[in-house]
Amino acid sequence: MILGQVADRRCAVENQCDPAVRSEGDHVKMDLIKEVFLRVPAEWRGLGVIGGSGLVFRDGYASFNALARFEVPIMEASDIMGCMCGSILRGVATPLECPLFGHACNTANPIGPGMVSREGACFIWYSYP
Ligand code: SF4
Q1: 39 in helix, strand or coil?
Q2: Nearest CA to ligand 1 atom 3
Q3: Model confidence over 19-71: pLDDT tens digits?
Q4: What's the gap between Cα 63 and its chain centre?
Q5: Which of 80, 98, 103, 106 should be mutated for ligand 1, with most atoms under 8 A from CB?
Q6: pTM of structure
Q7: Where do the structural domains in the chain lie, given as residue ranges?
Q8: CA distance 36 to 109
């Protein structure tokens, strides 16, 4: 699609999935996912608990559950003092509104997840002012 745009000397946002994805979804894959996983409430950083947003293995697939097979400590997703990542994730604040942005929190010394990841809003905002 990109080569077609170059050849046509035009630029546009085009969805490559359109020819391959049906609006009703892929029932074979959807049925497999329903067979293996159970939807449960899950906690999301900055968003809180969202019902049905998490997946756990159903009983028949428990042998694949690393949490059951190995002793993995579950740590609380505590908020980082002063970090506004939750508000930024929800789109109610920009990184510039965070008092730590560019001072205590920067790409060399990231404090919150938004600055840790190269895809994070804070990382991008800081890197491309
Ligand atoms: S990642 Fe850093 S700059 Fe972004 S909201 Fe958190 S503390 Fe603030």
Answers
A1: strand
A2: 101
A3: 778 889 889 999 999 999 999 999 887 778 999 999 999 999 999 998 888 99
A4: 26
A5: 98
A6: 0.61
A7: 24-77, 79-129
A8: 40
